[in-house]
Amino acid sequence: MTEHAIVVRHLSKRFGQMEVLHDIDLEIEQGEATCVIGPSGSGKSTFLRCLAFLEEANAGTIEVYGKPLGFSEDSVGRRVRLDSASIRAVRSRIGMVFQQFNLWPHMTALGNVSEALKTVRGVPRAEAEERAMIQLRKIGLENRAGHYPAQLSGGQQQRVAIARALALEPKIMLFDEATASLDPELTGEVLNVMRTLAADGMTMVIVTHEIGFAASIGRKIAFLDKGRVLLEGSAQEVFGKPRNPRIDQFLDTYLDRGAAMLI
Amino acid sequence: MRFDFALVASRLPEIFHALGVTLMVWIASLIAAAILGFLVAVGRRFGARWLNYSLSAYVELFRGTPFLIQLFLLYFGGPYVGLSLDAIPAGIVGLSIYGAAYFSEIFRAGFEAVPRGHVEAGECVGLNRSQIVRRILLPEMTMLVLPASVNMSIILLKETAVMSVITVPELTLTISAIGTEFYAFVESLFLLALFYWGLVEICGWLGRFGESRLSRFRFAQS
Fold it and tell me: A152 in contact with B at a CB cutoff of 8 Å?
């Protein structure tokens, strides 16, 4: 039996009147890549941001290795917000990669990767930079260590952003459309880094539009539609026939967009 | 022109002293105003609601009234409430409080211009609030607010002239006194304008130098 890395129960999130996530139940398995796909506006990014605690859900619980993230239920079932130290402790096991990279422009690649080691973990500068170099070497950018984000291509920036998250040795990596703002010829290098991570047994939750990539890397695929998990299972179960009509429809528009590029 | 520069030359030590006073009150007020303005902006961004409201009232009040009147009230009205300051300290305190109101708005806009994602990335790697301010917001904001801050510095430099009304022995007071002495008002004011213009040009040049140094950190385009 695989251990659950994350267990999500009855998760709901509203922005004002709009319910973005509705009663989501999902398990993320240890050592596997889980891909979350779905049309835009389906709530998949919001879902991931809830896992990173960048959004606070309105109802439901998230447990990371058995520890509640942000909120837990007291003895009479009321939802209570945990103190910030315990939130930080749980969050520290999670690394996040954003669509917009979000590197800090005033720090070099090395500075970006070593920053949290220095300021959060209190690692001495020399050791922090050494550990950051190891991460940069892994993603093949050790020769760009002294470059500022503005001097790097989009793909290189995203790889540095992945290294920044990995430097803290998280147990779980979250990817929020990590390749969506990259030129098509630059997505490959980022996807390769992610494939390597998956092969190394990193637990990953990947929100993506790259359906082919999701099908090949995701041991589990969750299809979100209008804030609900419409379907979850292996790639075979989700994409194989007989297919859920909603997924057919989604794949059609996906193919349309793909075909449109060829014309 | 009747203005005899030989007469001015005989007063050069006095003029240079006045230039020194102008620079001193300007730089002291500038530093205090920037620090105070930064604290106000931080208070408004992260503070409780009552703090935000009171700081916003302060900004409105000091931006909404002329510096001349604020300075008069501080220097001549201060003693009535037990606040007796000499001319130079009064000038520095007055200009600092006045400038801080403007600086706080510059910094507030700067905070808002830092992409939200850069802060979120900091939260995700575990930086706490003060680390986010010191390590991310402050340095990123510095490059965003530099042009507006140089502009504000220039305005404050010229506002030091107002301190002449409370007898701060700075350039305006000194040179116009010399002008009065020689009945050469136009010439002395012309000379005075040249002094300020020269200082402003130096200030602008320093600002452009700073901007060019920071340009390599410009936000990366995705």
Answer: yes
- In this structure, how many other beta carbons lie within 10 angstroms of the beta carbon of residue B180? 11
Cβ of B140 under 8 Å from any chain A Cβ? yes
Query: Minimal CA–CA distance to A72: which of A81, A84, A85?
Result: A81
Return the domain boundaries, chain B: 5-217
State the CATH class of domain B5-217.
Answer: mainly alpha
User: What gap in Å lies between CA A229 and CA B28, rounded to an integer?
Assistant: 61
Residue B222: pLDDT band (50, 70, 90) is very low
Average pLDDT over residues B170-186: 83
As a whole number, mean pLDDT of residues B179-202 equals 85
Cβ contacts of A165 on chain B, cutoff 8 Å = 124-125
SS3 for A22?
strand
| pLDDT at position B216 | 64
Cβ separation B139–A94 shorter than 8 A:
no
Q: DSSP class of residue A56?
A: -
CB-based contact, A241 to chain B, within 8 Å: no
Which residue of chain B comes nearest to A108, CA vs CA? B217
pTM score: 0.79
